[in-house]
Design a protein that fits this description.
19% strand, 39% helix, 218 residues
């Protein structure tokens, strides 16, 4: 996808702070230091729009980035960082659960996993919970430039088996350094939004026709 504009919109900690324009939202989740900020910058063709931090776990808000005036990429707080205070982790958990369970604009999740290592318990739990509440997930295996290309298949197999990936959820190999997987991830995002919009439009048309039939009978 050609990027014509990309901008940071807002940081939110509650529903009242979320955008109200109804545009589709894609949530990016993953462990602290998995490379979410680097991925966001590569996806948006910006060097430092999403700021990386030398202190993992620092982000404590949902950060909204608007791309091409049409799609929000929503950067989530990283999970699994041991030095973050328990009270802050609990706050994150409540915010994330509320957003994922109730946000109508959310289309699906992009879950980042470091390709070099087997998924953590937090990775597995995040994926399992997402599937439990019925949210589609696209898994992105980051930092692909850190291992040989010939090992990608082996490592993605470990991710798939450890996380019990199901329901046709894809695993895309990504590198913020080389741009590997960038086009594929944008294509996945655009296609899924189009498919979901088509389903909604078809349902609305069917409901309208049913209503018209009912009115004609009366």
């Amino acid at each position: 996808m050609k990027i014509t504009s990309a901008e940071f919109i807002t940081s939110a900690v509650a529903a009242k702070q979320y955008p109200t324009d109804g545009l589709p939202e894609i949530a990016l989740v993953g462990r602290s230091n998995v490379g979410k900020s680097s991925l966001l910058n590569k996806m948006m063709n910006r060097k430092a729009l999403a700021r990386t931090s030398s202190k993992p776990g620092k982000t404590q808000t949902l950060n909204y980035f608007l791309v091409n005036k049409s799609i929000y990429l929503v950067d989530f707080p990283g999970y699994g960082y041991a030095k973050v205070a328990k009270s802050i982790k609990e706050t994150w958990g409540k915010m994330i659960q509320t957003y994922l369970a109730k946000r109508e604009e959310l289309r699906f999740i992009v879950q980042l996993v470091d390709i070099r290592h087997a998924p953590s318990k937090d990775d597995v739990a995040m994926y399992a919970w997402s599937k439990e509440i019925g949210i589609p997930v696209v898994i992105v295996a980051t930092k692909a430039d850190k291992i040989a290309r010939g090992r990608w298949q082996q490592h993605t197999k470990i991710i798939r088996e450890t996380m019990n990936v199901r329901g046709g959820d894809p695993i895309l190999v990504f590198s913020s350094e080389t741009g590997q997987g960038r086009d594929e991830l944008w294509q996945e995002i655009v296609n899924r939004i189009k498919e979901q919009d088509a389903v909604v439009a078809a349902a609305a048309k069917e409901a309208k026709e049913e209503k018209k039939k009912a009115e004609s009978v009366e």
